[in-house]
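Field reference: sequence -> structure
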Amino acid sequence: MSSITVTTVQRSWHSLLEYIQRLTRAHPLLSTLAAGVPLTLALTWPALRASYKGYIALGPGGMPHNVFGWVAQGLLLPFALKDTQDTAVFSNPRVVKEYAPHGTRSFFDPLDGPLPVREGPRPTVPGYVAPQRQTSSSNPGNVGAMRAFLSSLADNDKLEICASKLEHPHTPALATSPPAWYPQGEIAHVHAEGSAHMVLSLVDAAAAVHNGWAERHRLAGRGLPHSYVLVYAPRDDAEMEVWCRLVRAAVGFVTAAGETDEI
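Structure field:
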């Protein structure tokens, strides 16, 4: 490289540095942001990468199963529930009034006795807004029987099995026919790892969460019913019986609410 070319490059470089210095002095906030964004990305990249991999590992759900879905659910985090096991909302007078008259009614069969307490710790449920899944104590071996039970309830002109409106369209859901109440009459659906989403009355949702069988969806009360819960995967025959009790209670509540145009 000739001395003239070297000199030209040096002058251009110095001119660029001088321009950056003037810009920094004139717009300190802009320059801080310009320097901070790359630094922030560099520092948080491992965590972001791990979060995205964890999101994809959950499988398809209500959000697109790609980077756009991951970003979208991340943007919803500021509006999502922080504590999905808090049951205080179920006794909130405003919510109770909103869900009248069936919200404060239990739809559990009294002949089955009180809802038992689930043994052991709750499964791990990562903090994504959607999809909401458990990543421990799962039991995909029960999924076939669980979906068969939902189908067995759709044996009349009031209930049907249809593509879920809240999950992946390939997920079968039990819903009212025609759709009544919200969300679009959907009562329950089962996920591939054995957990399930369903809509219960306020008192039944409170009992399910309090006794360790479920937790609220992160968007419950934020576009979804307050009593929209994730019910953990049943681990044995006894827990499968409890799960069936919960489904029947969900059917009772949603059909009753639909008949009275509740909410």
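Note: Residues 78-259 form one domain.
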